[in-house]
Structures are given as C-alpha cells and as structure tokens.
From TrEMBL:
Cited PANTHER family: CHEMOTAXIS PROTEIN MOTA, MOTILITY PROTEIN A
Keyword hit for Cell membrane: yes
Membrane-spanning residues: 7-25, 31-56, 154-174, 186-205
Domain MotA/TolQ/ExbB proton channel: 107-220
Name of the protein in question: Flagellar motor protein MotP
InterPro entries in the record: Flag_MotA_CS, MotA-like, MotA_ExbB_proton_chnl
C-alpha cells in the first residue's frame, strides 16, 4: 500500500520559508519584492525546458509528471510483513502442497510476490525462478534510472541557465553604464537568475533525485528478500528455518525486538507446560 510521503513537500516548503524569512529579516517586504524578476524566471524556466526537450525524447518527457509524483509517495511494505507472509506460505505448502498456494493469490497484493507464487505453482526449478525474478529486478532498476535521469538532468541544467542569465544581465549592465536608471534591472537579472537556478537544483531537483534513488534501493532490497522467500517455499524449507533465514534481513533493532518477543513467548509456554 502506498501513502503520501509528507517529508518531500514539507522539506521543500521549509526550504522556501527559510529563504523568505532571511530575505524579510534583512530587507522587509520592500526587499522581498526585489527578489522577484520576471525576466530571470523566463531565462531559467524557459532555458531549462528547452534543454530538456533537446536531451530527451517526447515519450520520456511525458513520464516526468509520474516520476515526480514518486517522490511524494512511499511504499509501506515492511520486511517483517514479508517474513510473516512467507512463513505462512511455507506452512501451508508443507501442510497442503505447493498447489494450495494458488488460493493465496487472492489475498496477496504485491505483484512481484504473486509472480513468484505463480512460478512455484507452475513447478519451475529454483534456478529458473531466481533468474526470472532477478531479471525483473534488473528491468525495474533500469526503468527507475531512466525516470530519475530526467530529474538529475534538470538539476544539472538549472544552475547552468542561472549562470547564462547572469552573463546576460552583466552584458546588459555593461552596455548601459552611462545610464544609472538601467543598472538596477540589469543587475537584478544578473544575480537573480543564478539564485533561481541554484535554488531549483539544490532544494527541488537534486533532493528529489536522491530520494528516488533511495526508494529504488529499498525496493530492490525488499524484492531480494521476496526471492529468498519464494525459493525457500519452493524447496520445502521448514517454516521455522525460513523465518530465521529471512529475519537476517531485519534491521538490528527490529531483530533484537523480535528475539526478545520470541523469548518471552517461550517463557510463557514453559510456564503453562509446568
């Protein structure tokens, strides 16, 4: 299940608020107005769009919206939930046979797990199952990289167009040194384009690209655990052994809590037996 990731909009908003507070603190509302320049916005945004159109195919650019949305959602799939699921599947497979797993497909939401179960029910060899599922991970990683590349390139181009705007502003300023009235607007274009490009790159595009990269790594990690679980179920591993094997993927804190819970449960059972 995917939920909204509030940290992304919160971080971007917080960054802009800090910048605005710094401006208002030193220049007041009049000073804040001087940080808005339409010409600078046109140079940075227009140049950025132009560079993206040159770099990517139109089919890739059409996916930009869906790629950006990924930075605002999170996958709540937990390692502990995956372990519990495969422990249950292993128990049922040993009790009723591998064909009984087909009935579990209705309650499983993850398509990657479903695919693994289908392969198990179809009687595929463990090596074949592993190869097929690892190939899907590789394909997913490639798709994510190509989508993330849009944002990474935007992070590269934004400061560059800010610098181009600065050069334009400096040329305009140097050409009108004899007219003091034009120095201010020319200087604004020179400085604000660099500011806009740098803020877009370091507050929006680069952090988003890094977040998407982290999400891809987390998803790959989960899928590798799923492959281990599928192979364990297919090979008929003891549910307890499979659970212990998959628990090695848990973070140390969660693993410690799980061990403590198992020890408490064992103590309770020994008291009842006594």
């Amino acid at each position: 299940m995917r939920k909204r990731d509030i940290l992304t909009p919160f971080g971007i908003t917080l960054g802009f608020i800090m910048i605005m507070l710094a401006i208002l603190w030193n220049g007041g509302t009049e000073g804040a107005a001087s940080f808005v320049d339409v010409a600078s916005i046109f140079i940075v945004i227009g140049g950025l769009v132009a560079s993206m159109l040159i770099t990517f195919k139109i089919e890739q650019i059409k996916t930009a919206n869906s790629v950006l949305k990924e930075a605002f959602v999170k996958n709540n799939q937990q390692v502990s939930d995956v372990i519990d699921l495969f422990t249950h599947l292993s128990q049922r497979a040993r009790r009723e046979g591998l064909l009984a797993l087909e009935n579990e497909l209705e309650v499983v939401e993850d398509p990657f797990i479903k695919k693994g179960i289908h392969l198990v029910v179809d009687g595929m060899d463990p090596e074949v199952i592993s190869d097929i599922m690892k190939a899907e991970i590789t394909a997913m990683e490639d798709r994510h990289y190509r989508g993330r590349l849009l944002i990474e390139k935007a992070a590269e181009y934004a400061p560059a167009w800010g610098m181009i705007g600065t050069l334009v502003g400096l040329v305009l300023m140097l050409n009108t040194l004899d007219d003091p009235d034009t120095l201010g607007p020319a200087m604004a274009v020179a400085l604000l384009t660099t500011l806009y490009g740098t803020v877009l790159a370091n507050l929006v595009f680069t952090p988003m690209a890094s977040k998407l990269e982290n999400k891809t790594e987390e998803e790959i990690f989960i899928k590798e655990i799923i492959i281990e679980g599928v192979i364990g179920v297919q090979s008929g591993q003891n549910p307890r052994i499979l659970e212990e094997k998959l628990s090695a993927f848990l973070p140390k804190e969660k693993l410690k809590k799980q061990q403590e819970a198992e020890e408490d449960s064992a103590q309770v059972e020994s008291v009842h037996e006594a």
